[in-house]
Amino acid sequence: MSPSLLDVPSVREYLCRQLLCRVPTPHKAVALTFDDGPHPSHTPWLLDMLAAKDIKATFFVVGRRVRRFRDLVGRAQAEGHEIGNHTDHHLPLSPLPAGLIARELNVCGRLVEGVTGHRPRFMRPPMGWFNDKVLRISRELGYEPVIGTIHPQDSRQPGVPTIMRRLHRRLEPGAIIILHDGGWRIRASRQQTLRAVDLLTDELLAQGFAFPTLSGLVDDAAAGKADDESV
Ligand SMILES: [Zn+2]
Q: Global pTM?
């Protein structure tokens, strides 16, 4: 099993200086994020589960899937979840020329806007691949680039106990958890992910954790900081 970029401390430190990896907050709150959807069966299952537990998540959707399953994006938005931009085709952006990077972001952003009425605030580079050019263009287009704190590589299906162990290893207030409800292949199984999310949310809810959207996590932390400074 190859490590995730976030598993190597020196690399993680570098990443966190370049783009959003975690949100410093004293509150017991974490952001669940799901990439590569929407997916016709995994996403509705997840939305049902999140609704039953009254918790929010952020979905980094891919344009090519939004075209096919736009109703699921509408449902997620209507149920209070946040939609992020994960580009149109889920290609590594770093090798692409500026025009194509912008196109990948703009097409996905417009598709989301067509459903939700507004453009996503955050973008996550596919496969975590980025360089200075990708970050500059993303920011110029109005997107805040984000990676996350914990990437348990759930899409490789390492088994639910392994996913849980990886999640626990770096779980902390302000963590941004990277999981996958979709995949490049529509038939990709996400049963392990769904099971792990069910277990993790039960456990953290029992510990008093909140699950805001990514914007909620970032804005609450910023508001808390502003309060501290005004005292
Ligand atoms: Zn992805």
A: 0.94
